[in-house]
Write a structure and sequence with these properties.
The chain is mostly loops. Strands 1-2 form a two-stranded antiparallel ribbon.
Length: 93
């Protein structure tokens, strides 16, 4: 895939490839923008910590690194990310 605003592969990264086995590897979402969501279209695992908390572990998920998932991620963000409302800043100035 040609490098553009939807895709790039940083082959010089010290962690590349962080998910071995992908033929085309998109580094655009190196840190997944869906990480903060409990439910996402990827395949995270949920693990229990020593203190009993359950946390989302995305280490084994390669969903954001697959070039064909770009539109899915962008649409998921649009639907699930809180919208910034400038009206909230009116009284802050």
């Amino acid at each position: 895939m040609k490098h553009n605003s939807r895709y790039f592969a940083n082959r010089d990264c010290e962690y590349f490839p962080c998910h071995p086995g992908l033929e085309e590897f998109n580094c655009l979402f190196c840190y997944c923008p869906l990480n903060y969501l409990e439910h996402c279209p990827g395949n995270p695992e949920f693990v229990k910590t020593k203190d009993g908390r359950v946390i989302k572990n995305c280490m084994g998920c390669d969903f954001p690194h697959r070039p064909e998932n770009y539109d899915i991620i962008i649409n998921f963000i649009k639907k699930n990310m809180p919208v910034f409302d400038e009206r909230l800043l009116k009284d802050k100035k």
